[in-house]
Amino acid sequence: MAARASSEERPPTRRTRGRPPTIGREAVLEAAIRLLDAEGVEALTMRRLASELGVSAMAPYRYVGSKDELLIVLVDRLAARLVYPPRPTDPKAAMLVLWSTIYDSLVEHPWVPEVLARRRMMAPSVRGAIEEIHAALCDAGLPIEAAVRAYRLMWNFTLGSLLVRAGAGTEGPSQQRELRAAPDPELYPTLAAAAAAWSGAHGRDTYRNDLRTLIDALLITTPSPDAPARC
Q1: What is the pTM of this model?
Q2: Residue 119: which domain range?
Q3: pLDDT of 17
Q4: Beta-sheet strands, E only, within 40-182
Q5: What is the pLDDT of residues 50-90, one digit of tens each?
Q6: Of 117, 96, 97, whose CA–CA distance to 210 is shortest?
Q7: Is residue 143 classed as helix, strand or coil in its secondary structure?
Q8: Whole-angstrom distance, CA of residue 188 vs CA of residue 231
Q9: What is the CATH number of the domain that holds 204?
Q10: Does 120 fall in a domain?
Q11: Are the CB atoms for 64 and 70 separated by under 8 Å?
């Protein structure tokens, strides 16, 4: 009677290769947002995104054609999630609500202001808020050309505030803070007098108060006889 073959003598069992992991569009977008929130724009590549998802390098391309296209989709996705509180009837107060909502949303995703500033992108989903802000400026008495200028100033102020805030949140010493802290009073007497005020302002988020001041200044207008008609 033949002896039973030992386990060492048995032929190896062939392993069947399973299907590669599959992903959906939602998984791609959410993983990209998590990566951007954690590490910023430079860390996001299509290969890195695929690695985070555990799929092949080409898998994310089923849903977006490039990194730039992905960023546009993500910015619009976040804009579409914005929930604006009820707006007061007063134009100034309405603008404060709209801008503050946009600002608070962008604070949660510091990479978005960088994308908007460097790549000149715009989220289609935010056009409703832009329309309301323009209408509020017109309701406050500005002609359409002045309303466009005022909007641009408020947007540049908001974007700049967000970029400065994001920079202040990075690790490492602040050269600006060091230079303002103890200027030579003989060379820079005004800066020396302002040093304490600068020190107290460091790290404070004064966006809303500053925006209110900016809006008040933009709406102080004395129309001339040949001024353009209001909106």
Answers
A1: 0.79
A2: 86-218
A3: 52
A4: none
A5: 999 999 999 999 999 999 999 999 999 999 999 999 999 99
A6: 96
A7: strand
A8: 47
A9: 1.10.357.10
A10: yes
A11: yes
